[in-house]
Amino acid sequence: MTNPPNILYMHCHDAGRYIQPYGYGLKTPNLQSLATEGVLFRNAHCGNPTCSPSRACLLTGQAAHSAGMYGLAHRGWTLNDYNQTLINVLRGSGFHTVLCGQQHIANPPYAIPSDAGYSEVLNTKGTLDQPASAAEDFLEREMNAPFFLDVGFYAPHRTVEGSFPRSVSPTDDRYIMPPPTLPDTPETRRDFALYAASVQSMDHSMGRVLSAIDRNGYTDNTIIICTTDHGIAFPHMKCRLTDHGTGVMLIMRGPGGFTGGKVVDSLVSQIDLFPTVCELTSLKKPSWLQGHSVVPIVNGNYAEEREAIFAETNYHATEEPMRSVRTKRWKYIRCFAEKKTTILPNIDAGLSKVLLYDNGLAERTHSSQLLFDLFYDPQETHNLAMDPEHRNTLSQMSERLEEWMRETNDPLLNGGLPVTDRMLTVDTDAYAPSGCLDDEREKLPWSNWLRNNSPHFHLREHTPPATAKEKS
After folding, report:
1. Where are the domains of the chain?
2. pLDDT tops 50 at residue 374
């Protein structure tokens, strides 16, 4: 019997699709090479655009609420059943399962990496690039079993202060374009230049791991899955159910047709990766899987294309329940949050947030239902939910979403989100995940830059900061 292929699952925080293979002006030559050698998925999406829930969807092949990961692992959330991870299934099938760097679905004391299925955890403490060094050392070993190597990089996640970790210097921010969700200002250009440097640092680290795969003879018998958890950590992106939040990079390379520089435009959800791995390794698909293997569409069988994908949010720093369904043409979002103005703590700190806050972000309102025509409105800015001409489309998309919610036993249909005695959250009226306001901006590393370079910078009157609290 032929040995099953090895698996390299390589991922990062908060990168969305803002890398070179998707046409953006960011230099990521290693990811570009991987795309030209493998398969690039142009329309891949996460199941939940927050960190732990997104990874839970990918690693269990289920919606976040089905898996039980309603919020962040370090804020008290856990999976319902850690036996249902891809890692544990592979471990039970003879794979040596190795964690190298970030994983974010098991946080002590409530769960530990071995619960999730890792048989070995490499030491990655030290520099930003340490996971790459540890992965290189592991790949030089003599292997006596197929491996599942999970390499997780912190960059380009924002730091607590709102900057970006990086090992390279940012480019001249006068000549960079910020994301289309933001105004083009000195603040947003500076913010995005720092992000770009972090992405370039991540690309360098990933390139080291990819070189180690090739150098040690694993190229032809290793499935490479390279992705991120969700959209980038800027206002209107991360934690949002527009494509700016759910859209993710996804590049795969390896046996089973994942070679040759193919580009796939079909809708793909990260919950499809678990059944894909099962097909490529000839493992029986567990009964709890809700996704579909992408092997058929990669090999040209477009009759297997998805008609729709679904996504959700529940808790990030605070509660903000939303659900969405997306087809090729339409996106429908339903917002269940009681608060109808911007929920600030679910937006990561940074220059762009300061700018928008000083220009009325907290007072901006949102509708309970959103409908977007993705063909004529790809930026999802023109809500058609109240347009009489689109009443039928609204009804069809709403019914489709409700059907999925019923099929997956969504708790929002039965009284609301669950709470636990260990979940840490902040009030929805707070400013930041910690509860502190950006009067703290005086302590931020770019405070002098703001004063010297930002025509928009000024101090506003603030209410006293809310504090983090335990909710029972």
Report:
1. 6-304, 310-470
2. yes
